[in-house]
Design brief:
13 helices; 402 residues
């Protein structure tokens, strides 16, 4: 049992050391995620899964996040960020182990659902950074998490693609090993970020419907959450079908598909790791949210319209740039509109909105892929984002933040 009185809070340690520790914790988690993502469609096909079942495989991960991100966020508001983060990383070890040894498709789905429960810790990590950041610095802090996400997309697919020559089980075991290293590192190095005096004293149920209704009463905040849902839904229409599209259009195998994910990850690292801070100071969150949506819409429409791999890569870069500037900006703005004692819960709800979108998006995308044609998930998503831009512009005008 850890003596809470003996655990140093993040506020008493040098900020760079704390940021580096959080960055490593999130990075190792996301490398494991990135190792699995490019092979997931192929792994499902190994068990004879149809395109619709592959959509379900992707959706199971997000459905679990939908259910567990808000309550785990509220739990971290009450007991602190550290124990929830450490416990969720331990869950990742078990989930990746089951993924490696799944004997059939449905246990593979269960493994992804357990990974989704564990991945609810992303919102806890975001709340952690909100705890140690000034309000005007939170978009940059969210970009820090985004940079870890992008770097995970660089290293994860590269490792996963290399290991896949030894079989899909090897990828799952390597991801489990990384999660174990992550657990030990967080257990030893990660301090608590939320002082006792800021922890919520309210007794809430796991699924706080009244708390959700309270968010709905806050029109700007609820509007941002709804916008985040729509953008994530559009993005996830593409995610579940990208590997299938590349396989059918260009004849790519696991390695080449992983290579494309590496390329997208490099763009994300550049944008979220180095550019998001200066861009927020220059244009503000509102401008970047709108610009990000425009870039994503253009990239999605151009993906199926690209006749060559080079142009396809250019469309992928537009998509990555758009996501790289939109996501940290909208999450930073959500954090700025949230009370200090409720950061975990609100960011958990934002993760739940994202997870609901990622639950609905993959089955929709794979249905369009099968029923309408390979390019339709991208065209539908790009068109929906373009139509949402006007509403988003009106919504953001009512939020008095730069």
């Amino acid at each position: 049992m850890v003596d809470c009185a003996a655990v140093s809070t993040a506020q008493t340690l040098p900020r760079r050391r704390v940021l580096f520790t959080v960055f490593l914790t999130v990075l190792l988690d996301l490398i494991g995620f990135g190792m699995i993502l490019p092979i997931l469609s192929y792994y499902g096909q190994r068990f004879g899964a149809s395109a619709g079942q592959i959509g379900l495989l992707f959706a199971s991960y997000s459905l679990a996040q939908l259910l567990f991100a808000p309550p785990l966020g509220r739990l971290s508001d009450r007991v602190g960020r550290r124990p929830v983060l450490v416990g969720s990383i331990a869950g990742s070890v078990l989930a990746y182990g089951l993924f490696a040894f799944a004997p059939n498709f449905w246990l593979l789905v269960l493994a992804r659902a357990l990974s989704g429960v564990a991945a609810s810790n992303y919102s806890i990590a975001q709340a952690y950074l909100a705890d140690i950041s000034k309000p005007e610095e939170r978009s940059k802090a969210m970009g820090f998490i985004g940079a870890a996400f992008g770097l995970g997309f660089v290293l994860g697919p590269a490792f996963g693609g290399s290991l896949s020559v030894f079989g899909d089980r090897a990828v799952g075991l390597a991801a489990a090993g990384l999660a174990l290293v992550n657990f030990l590192m967080a257990l030893v190095w990660l301090p608590e970020s939320l002082p006792v005096e800021l922890r919520s004293r309210r007794v809430t149920t796991w699924f706080d419907i009244r708390g959700f209704a309270g968010l709905a009463d806050n029109a700007p905040l609820f509007g941002l959450l709804l916008l985040y849902f729509i953008v994530t839904l559009c993005f996830s229409l593409m995610e579940a079908t990208l590997a299938l599209y590349c396989q059918g259009r260009f004849g790519w195998d696991r390695g080449k598909t992983a290579g494309f994910f590496v390329y997208v990850g490099i763009v994300l690292v550049i944008v979220q790791g180095g550019l998001i801070g200066p861009l927020v100071r220059r244009f503000g969150e509102r401008g970047l949210i709108l610009a990000g949506m425009a870039f994503m819409a253009a990239g999605l429409v151009l993906l199926p319209a690209s006749p060559t791999v080079a142009l396809f890569a250019g469309a992928g870069a537009l998509l990555a740039i758009g996501n790289g500037i939109h996501s940290p900006s909208v999450l930073g703005l959500i954090s700025r509109l949230t009370d200090e004692s409720e950061q975990g819960g609100t960011i958990g709800v934002s993760r739940s909105f994202s997870a609901l979108a990622r639950t609905l998006g993959p089955p929709t995308g794979t249905y369009l892929f099968s029923a309408a044609g390979a390019g339709w998930p991208f065209l539908a998503a790009g068109g929906a984002l373009a139509l949402t831009l006007l509403w988003a512009w009106g919504l953001l005008r009512k939020i008095p933040l730069g």
